[in-house]
Amino acid sequence: MIKVRAEFYSRLKEIVGASTLELSVPENATVADLFAHLQETYPQLQDFERSTLFGIGVDFVDRNHKLNDGDTVAIMPPVQGG
Fold first, then answer.
1. Residue 55 CB: number of other CB atoms within 10 A?
2. According to the CATH classification, is domain 2-76 in 3.10.20.30?
3. Cα distance between residue 72 and residue 20, in whole Å
């Protein structure tokens, strides 16, 4: 198992009830695996299945990105203009 930190923004933070969570995931887990795990715990996240953006460091990553121990994954709804 590896440890990662998930950071939530905007509406996703409200759904989870926290701005960050520390999680353990299996080695070789991907961003998609992490999000699927979160959807099991917080079913309302399924409403954002197609539109959620993920970032690690300063880069956006796709769902197939392999997680590394200590990664911080930013989980964001799509940016909306105002």
1. 17
2. yes
3. 9
Domain locations along the chain: 2-76
Contacts of 69 (CB under 8 A, 6+ apart): 2, 3, 4
Closest listed residue to residue 72, CA positions, set 38, 40, 34: 34
Contact 29, 3 (CB under 8 A): no
Average pLDDT over residues 52-71: 95
Which among 52, 74, 73 has a CA at the least distance from the CA of 3? 73
pLDDT bucket at 27, cuts 50 / 70 / 90:
very high
List the one residue out of 78, 1, 58 whose CA is nearest residue 34: 1
pLDDT at 82 over 80: no
Tokens 């998930």 sit on residue: 6
pTM here? 0.90
